[in-house]
Amino acid sequence: MDAETLGRRSVVLDAAYCAIIGSIVVGTRRPLGATLGASPLLVSVAGGATVAWSALVASLCGGEQWRTSVGAVATANTLAAAVLLAAAARHERPRAKVLLGMVGIEVAGFAVSQLVALRLQPKPSPTS
To answer: pTM here?
Structure first.
């Protein structure tokens, strides 16, 4: 698989993942809020933001400047994974630690696949 195909597929799968997970978060806001020690409203906002993010990510899949899109999504995923893993490390509830840690690892996996795609594709050389 070439770099562009890998990058685009990773972003498409990332968008689908975000839409599904965000919808699950909204749908399970009460039990998830209890697990995390957060209000159902806060959990719903986080899930809704994830669904909105998925729409933005999906819109980035088709452009000619795929490297820019993949790079932006990889950066966002790297930051999100770091936040999720830090939250997991600091949370006092064991179930919340596991849940946040697992999602952080999944998000980091998307970032890695996107960064690999960027690494495989040589940067365009400047023309004189």
So the answer is: 0.87
